[in-house]
């Protein structure tokens, strides 16, 4: 009888608190690793640098002025005279859209202002200009 009670007393115990710690660690690890897996589907443009740059919101619409002067609406090339119609269509779908104007630093200033003017004439009130953060 005494041997049997000794064997019961030496049984290993399952500790729950370290398992919970490991589960939280794995949860945080996978959450952080998925943040680095997100791809940005933007057109590569050589942006000018600015000290007060903020990240654009994921629900924004990118308007890009390429170095050759062509205008891109998200991933689609669009003529400048049709940009106002396209912007007004997007504003009709969702009036609180944010338009991010991305102009290559080799593009003449007047070309970027012409695109900005088209955005304003189409009724876009939330327009921001993209730039890279100065180092």
TrEMBL record:
Instruction: Please name the Pfam families in this protein's record.
Output: ExbD (PF02472)
Q: Which residues form a coiled coil?
A: none
Biological processes per GO annotation:
protein transport
What's in the keyword line of the UniProt record? Cell membrane, Membrane, Protein transport, Transmembrane, Transmembrane helix, Transport
Main location, first listed in the record = membrane
Give the matching InterPro entries.
ExbD
User: For this UniProt entry, which segments traverse the membrane?
Assistant: 12-38
| Entry's Gene Ontology molecular function annotations | transmembrane transporter activity
* Cellular component terms per the entry's GO annotation: plasma membrane
| Bilayer topology | Single-pass membrane protein; Single-pass type II membrane protein
Q: Which family does it belong to?
A: Belongs to the ExbD/TolR family.
Instruction: State the name under which the record lists this protein.
Output: Biopolymer transport protein ExbD
Name the source organism: Pelosinus propionicus DSM 13327
């Amino acid at each position: 009888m005494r041997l049997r009670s000794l064997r019961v007393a030496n049984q290993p115990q399952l500790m729950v608190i370290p398992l919970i710690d490991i589960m939280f660690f794995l949860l945080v690890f996978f959450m952080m690793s998925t943040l680095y897996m997100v791809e940005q589907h933007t057109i590569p443009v050589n942006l000018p640098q600015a000290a007060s740059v903020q990240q654009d919101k994921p629900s924004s619409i990118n308007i890009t002025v390429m170095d050759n002067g062509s205008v891109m609406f998200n991933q689609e090339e669009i003529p400048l005279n049709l940009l106002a119609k396209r912007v007004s269509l997007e504003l009709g779908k969702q009036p609180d859209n944010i338009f991010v104007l991305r102009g290559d630093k080799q593009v003449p200033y007047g070309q970027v202002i012409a695109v900005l003017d088209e955005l304003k004439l189409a009724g876009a009130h939330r327009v921001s200009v993209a730039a890279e953060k100065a180092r």
